[in-house]
Specification:
This protein has 16 helices and no strands. It is mainly alpha-helical. The chain has a domain at 184-376. Helix 6 (151-178) packs antiparallel against helix 9 and helix 7 runs antiparallel to helix 8. The longest helix has 36 residues, at 112-147. Bound molecules: fe (ii) ion (2 copies). Residues 137, 164, 214, 244, 247 line the site of one fe (ii) ion.
Length: 376
């Protein structure tokens, strides 16, 4: 059994100094290489539907494909400044200023111009990280096609590979055509994606990607979809979420069966991996690169903004899908409730009885009216 320090590299979850020490040093590199340690598995058991829930998901996915080029209305003009103002108003701000008292802080001399620029950088950063995360999903799901031993899961994963290609494509197009700059992958996100890919065990790819990264993405997309007034991103997120809900269900349905066979020691390793992933994702949302680009002392800025009530609600909402799904998989209460204790320390255990994503995908499905090419 490992200590918190062995799992995440620091003893104190909230040690800002240690969090900020993790940075991305090769921001100009065009490629990033990770050793894929896993065995590719052939199965000679071709019986389709041996796992009915996965088969149902596969049939659903075949009918739910959409086309990012033609189903989204790319003629919509996006005015980033206007979006910043609308977001601020939706969060109870005045449209152009800070949400908190900044007297005596590094923001004291900021004018409306800096606050708007911060909002614009934040949009560029957020959409960039969504795009990088989507590429992580593309690679992980291609890996699952190779490594999972069940034919129904290989079939389903193949449809997810197509979904993820489309997601990378639409986020990249939105960034290029509607926003004003890319950010390199955040170091905490890259560390997590690397860890998922490096692990040779096929179920760890699912746990890291489908349960943790995609569970968080589904919540983050849902949050943004709800509050944004920008019609193109709203539409884009609606389409992406209809796929993501299936992907998270794929993780829950596959792991539920597999975890039944695992020993207590093996389950404990999954709990530790889930905890590590949760911490990396929480750290990535501090958006340290944005503060750096805005030219303010990152640590001071973060100590100020990460404690605002809005930020704390947002941070914990990100876990609203992950926690109930971990509970459904038996990960919260195994090993004397080890993960329950860790999620309590992270302040997210309150979501344990929220709806899990095992069957929620029907509620997210696109209707026939929403799209010409995809049907519910
Ligand atoms: Fe995706
Ligand atoms: Fe996905």
């Amino acid at each position: 059994m490992s200590s918190t320090e062995e799992i995440i590299g620091r003893a104190d979850l909230n040690d800002l100094e240690a969090i900020l020490a993790i940075t991305n040093h090769d921001v100009d590199a065009v490629v990033h290489q990770v050793k894929n340690n896993a065995d590719a598995i052939f199965t000679w058991d071709y019986e389709k539907g041996a796992r009915p829930a996965l088969n149902k998901l596969y049939e659903k996915a075949k009918k739910s494909q959409w086309n990012g080029e033609t189903d989204l209305d790319w003629s919509i003009e996006v005015d980033q400044e206007q979006v910043v103002v609308a977001n601020s108003l939706a969060n109870g701000g005045d449209g152009t200023g800070p949400l908190l008292d900044v007297t005596g802080t590094c923001f004291e001399n900021w004018s409306e111009k800096e606050w708007i620029q911060l909002g614009i950088e934040s949009q560029n950063w957020t959409l960039s990280q969504f795009m990088h995360g989507e590429q992580g999903a593309l690679i992980c799901t291609a890996k699952i096609v190779e490594t999972v031993p069940w034919i129904d899961a290989k079939y389903y994963a193949a449809t997810q590979v197509m979904d993820e290609a489309r997601h990378v494509e639409v986020f990249a197009k939105y960034l290029d055509e509607k926003l004003s700059g890319h950010y390199p992958v955040n170091a905490h996100l890259r560390m997590l994606l690397d860890d998922i890919i490096l692990d040779p065990r096929w179920d760890m790819t699912y746990l890291g990607m489908q349960i943790m990264v995609e569970g968080l993405a589904l919540a983050a997309f849902g949050f943004m979809h709800q509050f944004t007034t920008e019609p193109l991103i709203k539409q884009l997120l609606r389409y992406v979420m209809s796929d993501e809900a299936r992907h998270v269900a794929f993780g829950v349905l596959s792991l539920q069966e597999y975890y039944d066979e695992l020993s207590a020691a093996e389950i404990r390793e999954r709990q530790e991996f889930a905890f590590e992933a949760a911490v990396r994702m929480r750290d990535r949302f501090l958006q340290q690169e944005v503060w750096d680009r805005m030219g303010v002392p990152v640590k001071e800025a973060l100590s100020l903004v990460s404690t605002t009530p809005e930020q704390m609600v947002f941070q914990s909402m990100l876990f609203s899908k992950i926690v109930p799904n971990c509970k459904k998989l038996g990960l919260l209460d195994a090993a004397d409730g080890w993960l329950r204790t860790k999620f309590t320390e992270l302040g997210v255990i309150g979501f344990e009885d929220w709806v899990d994503t095992g069957a929620e995908y029907d509620a997210f499905a696109l209707s026939a009216e929403e799209t010409g090419s995809a049907t519910a």
